[in-house]
Design goal:
Blueprint: H1 20-27, H2 32-36, H3 39-51, H4 56-70, E1 74-75, H5 81-87, E2 89-90, H6 92-105, E3 110-115, E4 119-125, E5 128-132, E6 141-142, H7 145-153, H8 167-170, E7 184-187, H9 189-206, H10 210-223, H11 227-236
Parallel strand pairs: 1-2
Antiparallel strand pairs: 3-4, 3-7, 4-5, 5-6
Helix pairs in contact: 3-4, 6-9, 9-10, 10-11
């Protein structure tokens, strides 16, 4: 596996967000030093900056594939954004954090979509939508309107599903099972970062480390007071 390291900071510093909202969000995800001193991250930003004046759709597609090529190396469920920066290990949450930061940095309108077991991004240019399926380096860029709707349909809840109104279902410990379709909603970058802790809490539960699970779920709640996280926390917390 190719390691994405924290290398020579003198040749790295390029990432300098001017967006105050992005700076505030980053404070909950990683220190700004981690970005400023991360060679691969800053080389990517420089490459993207050189293309940022190109056709908007071309730039968005370029950003999608180049980010995967330079930063996202190996899929591992339950990884964090810090893990991603250190080793290139990613999952849907940490990868979506990466893309959302870059999209905000380059002022690309987008929405982060949370579902029962997955997270993805919908970007928008001139009222046209694009799917960024952040865990699929080959086919994760979707620009065709029919394919976009088909992709959404795979996650949209059935309005007749009685589980939609049940907190127990929304917060089920079966989170991660692809047969569950009760959640489809837009969340913020800060709320997305909370899902890192939520996932770590679920992994700790699976490993029967309930003390660690309680800590991680509390960290998640501090950033995102959702029904799902609350329900699992109440089950686990002493």
């Amino acid at each position: 596996m190719i390691i994405v390291g924290l290398n020579n900071p003198l040749s790295a510093q390029s990432f300098n967000p001017k967006n105050e909202e992005l700076l505030n969000d980053i404070a909950f995800i990683a220190s700004i030093d981690q970005f400023e001193n991360h060679t691969s991250w800053n080389r990517l930003v420089k490459k993207l900056e050189r293309k940022s004046d190109a056709d908007a759709e071309y730039f968005l597609q370029y950003l999608f594939y180049k980010t995967h090529q330079k930063l996202l190396k190996e899929y591992n469920k339950g990884t964090t954004f810090s893990n991603l920066l250190q080793s290139g290990s990613y999952d849907c949450v940490s990868a979506s954090i990466t893309y959302s930061i870059l999209l905000k940095y380059f002022n690309v309108d987008h929405r982060i979509i949370e579902t029962d077991y997955h997270v993805f991004i919908i970007a928008e240019i001139d009222e046209k939508e694009y799917i960024l399926e952040t865990t699929d380096p080959r086919n994760g860029w979707i620009s065709d309107a029919i394919e976009i709707q088909e992709f959404k349909d795979d996650f949209l809840p059935d309005s007749s599903n009685t589980a939609l109104k049940q907190n127990e279902a929304i917060g089920a410990l079966a989170y991660g099972q692809p047969n569950s379709k009760t959640i489809y909603k837009e969340i913020s970058l800060r709320q997305l970062s909370a899902l890192q802790f939520f996932n770590q809490g679920l992994i700790a539960i699976h490993n029967q480390d309930y003390k660690l699970a309680t800590r991680r779920l509390q960290q998640a709640l501090n950033l995102y007071n959702s029904e799902r996280i609350n329900t699992v926390f109440k089950i686990v917390a002493p």
